[in-house]
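Incident log, structure service

09:12 report received: a user says their structure output differs between two submissions of the same chain.
09:20 pulled the input from the user's history:
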Amino acid sequence: MIAAHNPAIQSSVLALNRHYMAVHILPVPRAFCLLYKEAAEVISVESGVYHSYGFDDWLEAGLLRRALGEVIEGDWIRTVNFEIQVPRIIRLLRYDRLPRNAVKFNRRNIFLRDENCCQYCGRRLGMHKLSLDHVMPKSRGGPTTWENIVCCCLDCNVRKGGRTPHEAGMRLMKVPLKPAHNPLLFHHLGSRKYESWQAFLSD
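09:34 re-ran on a clean worker, output below:
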C-alpha cells in the first residue's frame, strides 16, 4: 500500500517499448504495477552506464546502497513492508508498438505548449486564472485548432472579446503552432530529476 500523500507519488516515469523507444509517460503506481507483474524492468543510468533491474533486484539494490550509506538522489516510496526508490525510466518487455507522433489537442497540452503564460500580456499564472482564446473569434468562423487557440488570462480574454488581436490593439507573444512532440515530455525535461530521459528523446 503506497501512501497517497507522499509527494513522490506525483512523479512521472518514462516508459520505453521493447526496443528502447520512448512511448508513454506513466504515473508512479502504474509503473510499479508493471514492474511487480514482470511486464517491465527498470532502466537506471549509473555513472554513465545503463543497467536493467527487475522489481526484486531494484528493491534490493536500493536498500543495499542505503545500508552502505550511499547518497541516493531521487524519490522514495514507503509501503507497509519496505521502502523503494521511484524509477525514472522503465522498459516494457512485451510492448513493440512505435511512439505515437500525434499530439492530443486538449486544454492541458495547450497550457503546456504555452507554459501557462498568457499569450497577450505574458503573465504566467495558475490554471484557474487562465482560459483559452480563439485568436480569430469563433463567432467569425475561427477554427478550434492548434494554430488558432492560445492560453490567455481572464483579463486579456475579456479585453479582447469577440475581436481579433489587431482590432483589440493586442499582440501575440508568439505564433501558435502544433507541437512536434508531447508538450508534457519537454515540460518534464526542464526539471533536473528527469534529465536521464534526454537520451531517449532525441530526434
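09:41 both user submissions now match this output. Likely a transient worker issue. Closing.
09:42 reviewer note: The mean pLDDT is 87. The first helix runs from residue 28 to 36.
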